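Minutes, project check-in

Agenda point 3 was the complex the collaborators sent over. CS summarized: two entities, 956 residues total, and the question is how they sit relative to each other. Sequences were read into the notes so everyone works from the same version.
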Amino acid sequence: MRARILSPGRVRVLVTAAVLTAVAGTGVELGARQQAASGQSTQANQGVVLKGRAPVSTEVLKVTLPKPRRATLPNGLDLMVLEDHRLPQVSFQIVIPGAGGYYDPPDRVGLSSIVAALMREGTTSRSSAEISEALETMAASVNVGAGASSGEATVSGSSLVESFGETFALAADVLLHPTFPDEEIARYRQRTQAQLVQLRTNPNFLASERFDHVIYGDHPGGRTFTTPETLAAVTRDLLVQTHKARFVPDHAIVAVAGDTTLEQVRALVEKALAGWTSAGTPEPATTDPAPMGPAHVHFVARPNSVQSNFIVGTQAISRTSPDYPVLEVMNAVIGGGPTGRLFTILREAKGYTYGAYSGLSAGKFRGDWQANTDVRTEVTEPALRDLLFEISRMRDELVPEQEFADKKRALIASFALSLESPASVLNRALTLWTYGLPADYWDTYPARIDAVTREQVQAAAKRYLDPARLQIVVVGDPVKAGPVLGTFGDVITYDTNGNRTGGGVDR
Amino acid sequence: MLRTFRWFASAATVAAGVTAVVLAQAPRVTFSDTRLDNGLRVIIAEDHSAPVFAVAVNYNVGSRDERQGRTGFAHLFEHMMFKGSEQVGPGEHFTLIFNNGGSMNGTTNKDRTLYYEVLPSNQLDLALFLEADRMWSLEITRENLDNQRNAVQEERRLGVDNQPYGHTSEVLDELAYDTFAYEHSVIGSMADLDAATVDDVKAFFRTYYAPNNAVLAIVGDVDTADTLAKVKHYFDRIKRQPAPPEVDMSEPAQTAERRRTLEDPLARLTRIDMAYKVPPGRSPDSEALTVLANILSSGRSSRLYEHVVREKQLASNVSAFKGESRGPGLFQFVGSLLPGKDVAALEQAIEAEIARVQNEPVADWEMEKARNSARRSFISGLGSSLNRAVLLSQYALFYDDPGRINTQADRIAAVTAADVQRVAKQYLVPSRRTVVITVPKAGGAGGGE
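CS then shared the predicted structure for the full assembly.
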């Protein structure tokens, strides 16, 4: 519910709705995700009927996002402060491009995640336990994260306003003076090995891991998690060197939102990060992944599964592509949210699934578009057929006018909700900073979405959702689900450890 | 006249004795609290900090109200609330909310069923109309029921049957509780979901979805008087119904530890779940138990993390928590065993931490941590109109005290170290305990150990 501090490296827009929450995992709480529909769906078998009797305001509230104040320090560090005095709290992010897993050597996938996790486990002046105790006594937080495929690492934190100075100073200590104690490395290794084992029991992880590999090949955009090899090979020296070389201020930013001012932040940063000197490193670059191989069905055999998990998708565009708004609208129509066609058909009309969505993932390099759902094993074949049919319908037909207008209005009108959360407004500003988008990008966003035409969306679907480029990933029971997949293409099979076990000739 | 919620930090500040830091004064939520003639309780909290409002409708019905043979029904019914009413077609409710830039959902637990929406402030009529229409009338067809039965059964497969440890919490509740109300799971059994009929849906609607069995909270960029007038306009015609039957929440005293081992074909590592019976949420001991959970398990400075995860390296994670519960509650521990370690050693390590809190003093900083955590969570929560609407409606429904939103942090702050020690001694004892150990089953997707 609450806006999350997004890592701006690869921002997933129109997030595919998550499945059950962690709370639901305990069996206590169940979310309904009661959501569906499309404009043309007055036909009975479509699952949604619009009677049109509810009092709807036809206006869309014009929303102008507040803009953060900016400054640049002599060491190259940018500052961005969104002053918001509604509540006595502050949140911040120090974003460090070049320090994410994208830049890990191919035989050390996940190294950055280990560096990030261990930075909090001890500094030259504080032990791991002292850091945790100091922060948590103030009800403050500091975390360091670096995704396996993301370009940047982020030191993030938040606190009540009275503890902001102390919290930021702790974050700076963690950023500048980590010691990577051997004892903590050993502990981290053991915990993470257990996590790696657990991950392989999770069907969503298995599906994403396979999909990312199929879409990105050996490109770092396809990295999902630290590998056992990296975990085994990591040493204190390697962590120290990696931290020193890559956690540099040259291209970094400190972004703050909350009950403070640019002047206060500047003074804090100048004091706490005084020792963070420019390294003279060039701006970290990215490249697009190589074009994918031919389309296949990739089947991960997971014995005892009672559902089949699907991800169907392809390489798409980068965040700065001129096609971005067109694909945003296209995605909204297919399944980028609960009123999409996938949900309407697969859940509300057919009852195959609890949810079916699609999402566009676009960052500095060419990203992907994907549709996903999970269905009971018995309907694996018809559900996959229906899912593929909805994708083909985007290529073959113009979206009906009312449905198209509804989707565009939803994208624009939802802006108002983000005004409640300073962190969410700040994240929109960080997106502009990350991708070098113009300062008035969000001001002109409604006009840009409004200008997208049905013909553009159909043309984009024909280009990007070409069946010859659509990869199909299925995780499910080998006895009941596996055999029906042959009708959808050449099947390559894998086990839950990620090993290829059969099928295919050219990969 | 009702006052507007003060959204800005008050100019008044208080000095904290120990650290001499000036603490920000938390704002208070000001609200109106009205009962319509038909019994609907209406709470309105006005503030104009963002052009947004939230509506929460909290019905006094959860899985605890279900009867034998109809487990999962309250939640299945919740899905039916989106399948159409007199003026609203199936699926139209959420279509209209999303198409107009809003968000919404429904959610069911043992104690209540909650529906909510957040919308831009020009759509107040839409939200009230939609909620009123489905409280007034529900259009129930066999076809729609079958459709949502399928969706809910997929929800069960997704969250329970296809997940490692998916059955563990069901088994734990069945073992720990003796009374049907809390003994069975919210999602229910496949067989009971299959058995639900259209007549069940109609009867449930009549009994539980009455205005006198619900709380409506509206929070955000609205005018209080205008909103109350609109609420009356849309909801006044809905008829009051006889009060639903009282739920049997009696729970016989447990006299000895209960224990079971469960084989899980989808798991790869062993997990231990321990639950201790504790009193209902309105008990004066609730806040001390909340502080106890914080000390044991909140963050990396917590005792379980520091000693069991980091020092002894027995588990990748151990948590302790106590959910909000109207009836007899459970104080729970969950520990994920590291490969090659002994689950008995993990259990002993958790018990050692329980013994330590029972027998040794709690540190001042741990108490301060719990106090600040509650204050921070209150202040952060104020940033969301939805969060305020949910809490106001829930505190009204559970404790007849919506103002608890403003006092909860103070109640936590009033807990002493001696209270924490006392509740640990009183409740975390073997005779109140249920233990479920989930072990990987050889030959499953997990591949055994």
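Noted in discussion: The CA atoms of residues 146 and 153 of chain A lie 4 Å apart.
Follow-up: revisit at the next meeting once the mutant set is ready.
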